[in-house]
Amino acid sequence: MTSPRSLPLVSLAVLGTAALLLTGCSGSADPDTTATVGTTAPSAAPTDAAPQPSASADAAPVDATCESILDADTVAQFGAQNWTYKETPFAAGGVTLDDGLQCTWADYDVPSGNLMIFGWAPITADQAAQMQQGLEAEGWLSEDDGTNSYITEDPMQAPTVDENGYGMTYQFGDGWVTVADVKQNLLLIQLPQG
What we know:
Strand content: 15-25%
Helix content: 10-25%
Order of helices and strands: HHEEEHEEEE
Mean pLDDT: 76
Number of helices: 3
Largest sheet: 7 strands, antiparallel
Low-confidence stretches: 1-61
Number of strands: 7
Structural class: alpha+beta
Number of domains: 1
Distance between the termini: 35 Å
Radius of gyration: 15 Å
């Protein structure tokens, strides 16, 4: 079975530090970067809090876009770094969610391999179970925090991890699923509201 990533992730080593994209509450649009190996990925402050999207899971989705699922400061910082996105269907574990989207943000004019992934989709309980089983069959690891479930890459296989050792991670809530290149970046996703 193939990886749930829609685009090849040539060099994600930069995301180890890029996982620290923005301070979630500061509202700072400082375009300073934190990077590894000479990269220019946007920076952020670390947090120990479990990632929680910032909108209610009960909200009806309305025209989710790659820009609307992220907080405005993140989108502004990406723009300041000349980053744009490529949108693909939300697919993982053998399940494609037609009403969702996965966004790969990067400076596509520079062949650097620096990129970040964010996605959101509405999901039924049956689809969530099937997606989780499919990912686990591919070697992904599952966790539950009592509120949400997470499926994350095996850190030994992940091209990059956040400061807590998590690579690409799917978060399953009540009627929705999100994804980010590292677990900590799930904090930057806002659930669409109706």
